[in-house]
Amino acid sequence: MKRLVLILCLMASPVFAVQPGEMMTDPVQEARARDLSKGLRCLVCRNESIDESNAELARDLRLLVRERIAAGDSDEQAIAFIVDRYGEYVLLRPTVSGSNIVLWIAGPVMLILGLGVAGLYVRRRRNTAETPIAALSLDEASQLKKILEQ
């Protein structure tokens, strides 16, 4: 039982996908590469960074980032190269510019509109007078009594 718990704990611990053979010899450049890798999305795993993913494409992207850094690119140039090649979807934190600005603004605008519509609905419900329920006439009461007796 103890072994099972130990195995489950080890399986639940975070595993970093960067292999020792991928690492750069310069610790400063390796730190830059790891930092950039954490901001890039694995195109296979979706919402997982390439730093954490074990997919082959994530490995290729990690190597590409390291190649660009080794070639002397700045962080911005390396990211721009990858975005040009794979599209802005590869960024875990997309930019707030161009056509993306509509997506960034749409959520809060829809929330405000929804709250406004809900507020108007509640206010109109409060302002409407409740119609009183009319009592049954003698004829209706006698018909109801006959139906209930059956």
Largest sheet: none
Low-confidence spans: none
Strand elements, count: 0
Mean pLDDT: 82
Anisotropy-based shape: elongated
- CATH structural architecture of the largest domain: Orthogonal Bundle
Integer tally of domains: 2
Name the CATH homologous superfamily of the largest domain: Cytochrome C biogenesis protein
Percent helix range: 55-70%
First-residue to last-residue Cα separation: 68 Å
Total of DSSP H or I helical runs spanning 4+ residues: 6
The proportion of residues in beta strands is under 5%
Rg over CA atoms: 31 Å
- Written as H for each helix and E for each strand, in order along the chain, the element string is HHHHHH
The computed structural class is mainly alpha
For the record, the CATH class of the largest domain is Mainly Alpha
> How is the CATH topology of the largest domain named?
Helicase, Ruva Protein, domain 3
